[in-house]
Amino acid sequence: MSHPETIPNRLIHEKSPYLLQHADNPVDWYPWGEEAFENARKQDRPILVSIGYSTCHWCHVMAHESFSDQGVAQIMNQYFTCIKIDREERPDLDQIYITAVSAMTGSAGWPLNVFLTPADLKPFFGGTYFPKIPRFGVMAWPDLLVRIGKAWKDKEQRVKIIGSAETVTRMLRSHLSENRSTASPEKKLDSSLMDEAFHVFQKSYDPDQGGFGQAPKFPSPSILNFMLSYAHWKKDHPSGQHAGNMVFHTLRSMARGGIYDQLGGGFHRYSVDAAWHVPHFEKMLYDNAQLASTYLLAYQISGDRVYLDVAEDTLKYVLREMTHPEGGFFSAQDADSLPGTQTGSSSEHHKEEGAFYVWKYEEIQTILSQEVFPIFGYLYGLEPGGNVVSDPSGEFRNKNILYARHTIGEAATHFQQSESEIVRIIADAKSDLLKHRSGRPHPHLDDKIIVSWNGLMISALARAYQATGKPVYLDAAGKAAEFIHTRLVDGQTGQLYRIWRQGERKIPGMASDYSFLIQGLIDLYESGFDFRWLEWAKNLASGLIEHFLDSQKGNLFMTRADHDHNLLLRIKEEGDNVLPAAGSVASLALWKLSIYTGNDDFQSKARKMMTSALSNPDLHPASAPQMLVTMGAILIHPVQIAIAGEKRDPFFR
Fold first, then answer.
1. Domains and CATH numbers, the chain
2. Where are the beta strands (DSSP E) in 327-393?
3. Peptide bond into 216 cis (omega under 30)
4. Of 18, 201, 297, 536, which is most buried with the most CB atoms under 10 A?
5. What is the pLDDT of residues 498-540, one digit of tens each?
6. Please, what sign has the CA dihedral across residues 347, 351, 356, 361?
7. What pLDDT, in 10s, does the model give residues 612-652?
8. Rounded to whole angstroms, how far apart are CA atoms 572 and 550?
């Protein structure tokens, strides 16, 4: 994405891969900070904040169309002070401004473009992707810029803009800030909340394809975890059996679909269709960590090796492609890449969605033998004209996205061979195709290391060791924990940082970093019984309580009080989304720590977090499925059994 006619802007000094993608833009980008705010106030012009992440498809599209265009950049530079933010570095800023845009427009996503007043950083207008020329009924980006820029210069219009900013900010304070009241004394915390959530998910469940809701369809591991918990809670009731069946059907459907990388393992971010066939091809560490844990749990409950195979292949993918040589885990792989064998081009304009993963029929035909190709094509749904039925954009015309159309048993019957022979043939075919695919231009790798996401992966690996006894998983989990302890903790103060890349740690750890890492360390302790992980988890828990807990209302602030004095407000995150809320994870972790350490304060804080979230009158129980898992664990009063012995003894294990 290099532009010889432009001089790199201020983002060239950043470490974020997303910000560096924009360092050669002709836009005079600033990183978030005092220099940008001072410029806006001095010039008396609004601030344009543009938020995204390095593996975001539509972020790339808008960058190519508008941010790389000299004419558009000139308009941006003329009317605004422009700031770029990596949402993965600063989820606190992202949460504030995406909530604002959602309130103003009814929806929001990335790239997120929001306009702020220069004096106090209050949002007054925003949206997501804007095209360079009008289409889809959306105003062109240059036209919008000029309209807002001129309105700010008009005294009467400016008064209206400032009034709008005040209105939006009041809304934000009522929904996100420390001022909101969350207590609902009349709301009883018992299993009826689990029943309420179950009925919501039951209504949105897709009985044909699995999953919850229609397209686009997300894996939603927090919901799956809750449904497995509910199935255990109600194991003697039909609703419990139904909950378990919904999860097992969903996990099998996803594993058969194109959302799952049938060759290399690992899950893409979501499916654009209801059948899990056509994914949005980016791969996120947090998805794969959570899904690996969920598949492992399904295996431990059911004993079905299908779930274990998916979990192990997912972990093998992470260890192969997403792991720093010294142990930490990278963040994501892009959806877009150069097609075919194009190499040596730095221009992002030639990249295509899913190019690394999709196949032409004839291409596979030339790689596999005449005997093997029909079997592979039968199993994985190959079609001469491509197997994507609904493709409005035409991106996948004549392309095949591999999915498990038939089972091994069906293939054995169809080709009159034994199942073991079909398994051997397919394993060899996958190996050949994976080797061929590895020669293609790879998607961009976002190699920053985020503590919270690493905590999730440490949990997944530790649980894999518990399920399989394979030392490779325990070793990888321990190595990642060592990486974080060495590079992301201040040795003097014990302060945890959020981000590490190329030798630089930055941004104070947020509640999710503490919470997810604490849980990972507990899982690591429960796997290898190394007491130092439990000791570190205990210290982090004390830091979490000191710096993030609202002692009055019981929930967690997203950031420390001294995190960033330019934040519009200090916010809380209570509902579970693609990532669970910090409090949902922390409450269960603190409850476990209280049992291990005898520290009753940890248990009281865990209960306070749970009560705060689940008694919130504005939050339906179905919005906090991971917190309901905590409640189920606490209400069930499990018996703790201590086994003494030599931990290397197989009988002890």
1. 10-176 (3.40.30.10), 192-203+217-330+448-635 (1.50.10.10), 357-439 (no CATH)
2. 332-333, 336-337, 352-353
3. yes
4. 18
5. 999 999 999 999 999 999 999 999 999 999 999 999 999 999 9
6. negative
7. 889 888 789 999 999 999 999 988 777 778 888 887 787 77
8. 9
